[in-house]
């Protein structure tokens, strides 16, 4: 049996609400293949990222209920799902935090983490209408699991180091798998195409885009929003906070600002509440507009890609209890491998699709090169792991390079 068809091996479930979000997600997979699930009437996309076998699914339509149903079906067909990610695009709140100093620009990524008494996602349309005609929100959602939150915190620390984020690298790899036309859509549109219009300036015609229609003198470009809005190409800022989720699209700037003020929401989307009401997943959103009347699709593909690239970074720092082996071999092949090398047994196998792990039974040496770090075992059987973005340790008798 093809090992990829073994549903028990998949431990990470990835929800992609839209087709372009699925495209970005597949671009992060290694050894991508499709797996039909007749009982679900859908086709899943499977592969692995780092040490994790990952299953992905696209929702039939946007909304809280379709996302909840997609996850329920996935967990039935793939019974060993331990970690769930909801990855896609959202409308961003342009300014937040003390004195509204923090700046979200198009292409940035928002990650839902517990803050201000929230688990990271607020279902802001679920609650009770009071006598004063105001809605008291009572929508309860779970927070991400401890394993996912620990991976996020490790990644936040790694981003502060000199090596920084691997998002630019993952974006380039994603684009290489696309056709020419699609590749252009997934490029960074650039600061010159990022316009934050004044709150009281309403888009005059929904049938047309802002280009050639809206008065750009009534918009702030990034260079007028201060240094916190500056970005290099393919280097989005990552924001951590509360994500607003509901079945309604938010177009008025006033409503967006109200939700920020009442619930400390920093971005708005339409699926996470359906997942987080029953499961401790992680919600990751790329910002494609400012949740106002000036919505357009120019930034959607790129925002989907930045969110997917960040999700891949998280998975690379999420521990796995099992080794990933993407190649199947017969017992004869394994016997042949173990009789090679020094005569005491030498075995080589692929590890996570990103490097080679080699074991020599004669010396007791294990060397692994992968994107997570480098692992060494010396002849005495001692084991060391380098940091995520680090370099091999310097111990007596150890190799000095893993290249």
TrEMBL record:
GO biological process, alphabetically ordered: nucleoside metabolic process
Please give the InterPro entries that the UniProt record associates with this protein: NLR-like (IPR053137), Nucleoside_phosphorylase_sf (IPR035994)
Record field: compositional bias (Polar residues): 368-386
Q: Where is this region: Disordered?
A: 322-354, 368-403
Q: Which SUPFAM superfamilies match?
A: Purine and uridine phosphorylases (SSF53167)
Organism, by scientific name, is: Pseudoneurospora amorphoporcata
Protein name, entry field: Nucleoside phosphorylase domain-containing protein
**Top-level taxon in the UniProt lineage:** Eukaryota
**Annotated GO MF terms:** catalytic activity
